[in-house]
């Protein structure tokens, strides 16, 4: 028997003994059984047909998310929908504090006995121009226990977005989203874009792979060839192009319409039984990468991130950007490419001009 369920049953049996003289035991057993059953079916981790059951402790009560420990998230909740506003100024950098708050919140969304969880969660940003930035490079430049823990929590945040099948997660993107932020964005169940949305998985330009699963999810979303074009060239996509490629469900021309349409969709989804939401999300989980594939991505990242070449790139990027609201951060990935490959870009431009001049000469000769 699942040890957590066994623990919960022991608590129930103890309570039943205390209340048996009050003739409450039959009703309590019925309610507890239904709660345990619903909790078990509402949290499933899919791996191509393999299902595991996870049941949080009976002591995990509360139908409202607790205030975020580091103050990086705020919540606006209705009966069925929770809107999460991200606010880690100045650019929503994925710092230890923000990742910890995201991780705490996603753990809270796991279903449990006598606990009502939101049917829909909407993630949005309080900072104009930024949705979710990259991982804090300072934690890659200096190896610390906090940095390693944050990386692990970032990975687990992506896993939780997939494995919590009783909640639909929606990204309302109207700002820059790149690096680790784009990895989480790609693992949301749905994504909607406003006019300021810009996304980039630019790790290839600095010699990395995306650790938290972002690369692996883009294949099913965009198709292999387009995903490789976007990833290998470290390209940026705006809202319109991202919608054309399937990264965004839809694009809206202004922030007001974006919010109104996302709210309307979330409210509609929230009308329907959570059991149907759970089974529908679970039934499509076969389209996601397997746990083994995601684990391999992490294994691929570890030696690259620690290499001397990578450390030089990280140091250079920190000097150029200072990880604050400036021109460098606002123009990722192109600012990264310009900084690291300026000589190569000049050589390419000169070579391209020579090729065009030669082509013009051939055209004149042919006439």
Q: Concise description?
A:
The protein is an alpha/beta fold and 367 residues long. Helix content is 53%, strand content 14%. Strands 3-4-5-7-9-12 form a 6-stranded mixed beta sheet, with helices on both faces. A 4-stranded mixed beta sheet has the order 6-8-10-11. Strands 1-2 form a two-stranded antiparallel ribbon.
Give the secondary structure arrangement, pairings included.
Blueprint: H1 3-19, H2 25-42, E1 44-47, E2 50-53, E3 73-77, E4 81-86, H3 96-108, E5 120-125, E6 129-132, H4 138-141, H5 145-163, E7 168-173, E8 175-178, H6 180-186, E9 190-193, E10 198-200, H7 214-222, H8 224-232, E11 236-238, H9 239-244, E12 250-251, H10 255-271, H11 274-283, H12 291-305, H13 308-321, H14 327-330, H15 334-340, H16 342-366
Parallel strand pairs: 4-5, 5-7, 6-8, 7-9, 8-10, 9-12
Antiparallel strand pairs: 1-2, 3-4, 10-11
Helix pairs in contact: 1-2, 3-5, 6-7, 7-8
Q: Keywords, please?
A:
six-stranded mixed sheet; four-stranded mixed sheet; alpha/beta; disordered N terminus; 367 residues
């Amino acid at each position: 028997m699942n040890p957590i369920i066994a623990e919960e049953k022991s608590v129930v049996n103890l309570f039943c003994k205390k209340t048996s003289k009050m003739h409450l035991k039959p009703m309590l057993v019925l309610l507890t059984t239904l709660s345990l059953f619903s909790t078990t079916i509402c949290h499933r981790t899919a791996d191509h047909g393999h299902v595991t059951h996870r049941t949080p402790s009976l002591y995990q009560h509360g139908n409202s998310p607790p205030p975020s420990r580091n103050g990086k998230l705020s919540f606006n909740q209705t009966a069925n929908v929770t809107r999460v506003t991200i606010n880690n100024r100045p650019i929503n950098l994925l710092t230890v504090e923000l990742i910890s708050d995201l991780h705490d919140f996603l753990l809270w969304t796991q279903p449990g006995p006598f606990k009502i969880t939101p049917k829909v969660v909407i993630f949005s940003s309080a900072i104009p121009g930024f949705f979710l930035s990259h991982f804090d490079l300072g934690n890659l430049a200096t190896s610390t226990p906090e940095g390693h823990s944050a990386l692990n929590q970032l990975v687990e945040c992506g896993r939780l977005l997939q494995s919590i099948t009783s909640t639909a997660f929606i990204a309302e993107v109207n700002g820059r989203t790149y690096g680790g932020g784009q990895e989480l964005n790609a693992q949301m169940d749905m994504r909607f874009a406003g006019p300021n949305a810009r996304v980039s998985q630019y790790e290839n330009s600095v010699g990395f792979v995306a650790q938290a699963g972002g690369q692996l999810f883009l294949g099913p979303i965009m198709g292999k060839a387009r995903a490789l074009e976007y990833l290998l060239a470290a390209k940026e996509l705006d809202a319109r192009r991202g919608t054309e490629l399937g990264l965004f469900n839809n694009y809206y021309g202004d922030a007001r319409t974006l919010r109104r349409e996302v709210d309307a969709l979330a409210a509609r989804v929230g009308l329907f039984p959570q059991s149907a939401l759970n089974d529908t999300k679970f039934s499509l989980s076969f389209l996601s990468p397997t746990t083994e594939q995601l684990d391999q991505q992490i294994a691929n990242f570890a030696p690259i991130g620690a290499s001397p070449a990578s450390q030089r790139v990280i140091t250079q990027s920190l000097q150029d950007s200072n990880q604050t609201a400036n021109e460098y951060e606002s123009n990722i990935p192109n600012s990264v490419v310009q900084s690291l490959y300026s000589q190569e870009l000049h050589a390419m431009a000169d070579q391209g001009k020579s090729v065009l001049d030669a082509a013009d000469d051939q055209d004149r000769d042919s006439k």
